[in-house]
Amino acid sequence: MFALVAGEGALPGVLIRRLEAEGRPFRYCEMEGHSSDARGDRPMMRFRVETLGSFINDLRSVGVDQICFAGRVARPRLDPSAIDSATMPLVPRMMAALQAGDDGALRLVLGFFEEAGIEIIAAHDLAPDLIPDAGAHGIVKPSDQDKRDADRGVEIIGAMAKVDVGQACIVAGGQALAIEAAGGTDWMMRSLMVRPKGVGHKALTNDNAWDDPIGLAADWLTGTGEGAPGVDRVRDPDLPQGGLLVKAAKPGQDRRVDMPTIGPLTFLRAAEVGLRGVVIEAGGVMVLEFDRCVEIADRQNLLFWVRE
Hints:
- The protein is an alpha/beta fold.
- The chain contains ten helices and 15 strands.
- The protein has a six-stranded mixed β-sheet with strand order 6-15-13-11-7-8, with helices on both faces. It has a five-stranded parallel β-sheet with strand order 3-2-1-4-5, with helices on both faces.
- Helix 3 (91-99) runs antiparallel to helix 4 (102-115) and helix 9 runs parallel beside helix 10.
- The longest helix has 18 residues, at 144-161.
- Residues 201-231 have low confidence and may be disordered.
């Protein structure tokens, strides 16, 4: 029996459709606090990190011998009062995992499943077509500067791996403009945007400013009012313009559960923040909706390069 642990993002839905198309039965699982839109009305096995031992036992009791982890899951906080008896023997190693970097934590947690006889299956083994062929896809081809920036980006990601931080960076003219951290790739790209000089939040100086405080708050939160977050933001003029998003698996990373992923939204954001293109490691990054990504890259005049 197969089990899928679904996190956030589009990847779980892709894998579910693949499993269903193949007629392959599976158990759908989620970690508490990380619901997925892919669930639909499917029965669910939900677990917490404090009940991981019981969750593994439950999987074995229904015959699960293979499991795939797909989608984003934030590092959980451990509530000692919620640890159950089946999980208690795992606690010393769990505490060590929570103190380790992402890769170290993943390896320790995966070990619990493997010790119970459950094989870890990578998402790209279920859907090999998520790994695109090497080469430049679309109308824009890499320039000599792009090649140098891509080399530099891979070098930076390799350095980041030594401290177990991130799988992406933005490089322009050999300079690192941003590196990926806990906020993720989208946050990293948005960090290039600033409010133009002289444009700030609208001052609330008139007598009627607070007549409709609920409406004022709604405008602020939704970005529809003057001075709302995200309004009038432009590429930081103090940074080099253009640049490449470079994304790759970290050297030594366990690719069964934490392979980097991009999709159409990656290209839309890259265009929004003024990047020249997106470069990914051949065989090391999954691409969701590949044809759509090429279409967006061409329409936005972006480089889409799967670099060997």
